[in-house]
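ping. complex inputs:
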Amino acid sequence: MPRLCCCSCLEPRRGRTMSKKPAAQPTLHKVIMVGSGGVGKSALTLQFMYDEFVEDYEPTKADSYRKKVVLDGEEVQIDILDTAGQEDYAAIRDNYFRSGEGFLCVFSITEPESFDATQEFREQILRVKNDENIPFLLVGNKSDLADKRRVPLDACRERAQHWQVPYVETSAKTRDNVDKAFLTLIRQMSRLKKGLAAEVEDEEVKRRGNCCIVC
Amino acid sequence: MGPPPVVTGISPKEGPPGTRVTIRGEFLGTSATDLIGLKICGCDCLLSAEWKSKNKIVARSGPCKGRGDIIVTTRSGGEGTSTVQFRGYHESIGPVKESAVWVEEAAPPSLPWGRRPMSPTTYTPPDPLGLSTEGDDCKFPEEELHEMFPDGSGKLSDDNFQPGWYLLEHHSNTSYEDLKAGMVFLQRKVESQKEGQLSFLKANTGAVMDQLDRLVLLKNMYEEDQRKNGKEPLPSLQAAIEESITLADSLFSEILSRKDNADKTREALSLLTRHKFLFQLPASIDRNIRKKEYDLVVNDYTRVKNLFGNTDVKLFQKILAEIDKKIEDLKEKLYTRMKTMPINVQEQTKYIRLLISLNWDGDAAWVAITSRKEYLMTLMNKVKDHFKQKEEQESNEKGKRKVKESESCGGWSAVRGAWAAAAAGALAAQLHALWPLARRYFAGELAGEPQSTQRQAELKDMIIAAVELFSEHMRACLLAPGGKLVPTDTLRARLLANLRHLREAYDSLLKLDLPSQPLSIVEKVIFDYRVHGMSVFLQRAHKRVKGLADKETWKIEEFTDYGAITNLPHLLETYVNEAFAAIHKCVVSSGRRESPLLVEGGEPANTLHKHTQMILLAYVSVLQDLALHHDDQEFNNSNLSVALEQRLEEGPPAGRSWQQRLLLAGANAHYTRRHTLPSIAAAANTYGFPKQTLALQATKEALLGLESTIAETYLEHKGDPLVGTIEPSIDMGRHKTDADAVIDDARPYVYEIINNLIAVHAEVDSVCGAASVRYVRDICETVCEELARLAASAPPPPPQAAFQQRLEYTLLQQACAEHLTRKAENYLMEALAGIPPLESEEEKRRMDTIVEGFKKRMELQLASLNCHMETV
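pong. complex structure:
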């Protein structure tokens, strides 16, 4: 089952050539990467976008990426806003969040402070969006550094459970679960936009969340 | 031709001109030379573009503004597209904006519009080997490096750069493979740069030519400029600058001097104004006082004190003294006003505040409170005097016509009512003013430190004194013993009105949240007044009951189970009921926070009880008087026919004979005892009064006593004459008796007795109905006793006479069978015992025959003796 959703992410390569003539604009999903500085938001984004792992660290201000992916046989466009994790930019976050439709809240499993910070990000997003059911994914990054792990898996799951959001552990370095994280979120957004009943969505999310942790 | 370039990522997505952006995408050129065009937001940025890989270009944004695409053009793929956009903006430079320009070592050629906001601390030159130093924690000790390379440096940009140092410093932990890869990377980079420069020139021939043209143009312009301004343009420029400096200086100093002048003028003006204010103040104070704008005066006074309070100028001091005098006068005036009553609280408060703000030495608020209290006292007295006077006046006026009419009304006169209303109103109004004033005073709202406890106690005493005065007046006014009777309705209305006045005053005091002591004083007055009202009603009823004697008409109202009664019992019930109803309506219902009037065992309850008893006993004595009072009139002891002639219904009521009145009174007493008293008890119960058990009991006993007195009297006057006739009758018959004659009938005295009994029975029965039995029975008893006495005193008769006597006794026994008591029978038996018994059966038979015959003959008489009025 987890393989299945990863397969779909290989599709978009084919679709890229078609971008020259955008005939009928595919649905656009605006995803925003949030999380403390240095947890790997940009690394995840670049890995997802270009299969590339950037070793050197340069603090992001605000980067914008967009590409097409095929999700469950349908071509959609994903717009990723990679935001600044540093507190210096906290003031302008509100503006960014307002335009977001789905959020990947990233922390580093080697850094408990970043895990703590997710709480604040969650609150800020809920405050700005004023919607409990906004598509949202809790992402624990740097899963390749298992020996340096300092945030227990249980705590992560518990928080995701509490927020009723899925939890995924990724590694931007090994590309582990990267596509899954993005696609899970996009699927949520897509369903929400298609007007599926909220409670069905919730169930789905729970089920999915659990299985992701397993894989 | 390959696929066209697509830009899918931009980092950052916005920035001011010169921002270093990383452009990512696909097919961005196969090599640096393949990249032939880069436009960000329409600005050509190719010059700053640095091709990194087919997926990544780093460039600097141009002087663009707003949002726009990033278009990459390659030789292999042509013009590309962009899925993301860059937004350029121009930073506005403010004083707090960090704007220093730092020259960056590894910076690309600085661009004419370029500004570099990056601070040097954030800049670290990229690793030349393209290897990450991340996670490289264990650093090579610096001292060793210095030892190893004494003249060297590890910095890439230094002249004495030592690659060994750099490698040891940054890559001491890097694996050999990585280092090799880094080497390859470095070589490629060097290659690409070399190649890049060459290709750059080739690719931009047009631009280079263009630049040459520009340079030529620049040269021409410069030469022309030189021709125009000569070789040395500087002196003239300097002269111009110097001139402008002087001009600016002169302009500036002029402005400065003007400002100085303006300041001085302003100062002088303000001084003038202040002095004018001072000199005009006395006049303006006068004016404001006239206009009653005391606040203005206070403000002015405070201001002048602030401005000139410490002045040494004689003139000023003089004026100040004048002002002080005026203010003193004003204080005096305000003080008088504050004390002068009547005045409403707002105004008084205003005066108090003014006095306080004028530093009046004294406790203004306290004075106000005291004066208010004094005023209240005098007002009360005034009200009292006024109404007293009025009352006197009225009584004098009326005195000419009817003596002492007004005074006789006592506490119920209209004047008294008005007095109560006025006094209650005055008390309520003044306390309404006084109490809040006092409360604010003690809350410290009226400034002036209240000398708490002592003053509190004084205030309390004051209020209590006022309330006590009020209650004293009200007692004098309302509780004065009432004189003549006024109509009950008027009385009730006045009582209610007066009560209402008192209650209104009480209510308004309650609202004030006064201490409980003064409240209870007022409540006591109300309570006493209620008790007073109750007593008045009861006294009134008492009086009326006493007067019942005059109302007795002896007209029979109805025949009841207890005999024929006149309207006396009904009147009693009505009077008592009326009194109860009035009491219930007027005084029993308690107002707010008043104690209930008739508490079981309480004083008023006892009064009520006492009065009730008095009323009822008065009634009993009235009955008694009526029954036993006779103008030496003797009983009508004539025979039956006379008694029957005086038909009760038809007879003139006034002319009721005494015996009838006696019987009627008895019936009345009986009825009252059995019927009226329970209904009075029921009425008391209905009105929720305490049970009047004792009074009722006492009355019952009194009535019982009265009834037996009446019965005895009746018996005495009626039975004695009857009995007296028996002996003479027997004797009278004896002379005619023939000793040998056959005895076939009783002697006439038997018939007389029977007839007399019938007459009594008829009379009593007509009045007393069922109760008549008692009277007849008593008389029968007396008759029997007399017979027994006679039989005992007479010598034993001869047989013939014995038979006769036996016959007579038997006949009497038969006739009076219904009315004979045990005692009466005993008497008869006694009489019979003295007679020798019948000797033969024949005699017995004879007697039976005679008795039967007697019964037959006397059937009508016997029937009338043994029946009651109703059954006839």
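Chain B has a mean pLDDT of 74.
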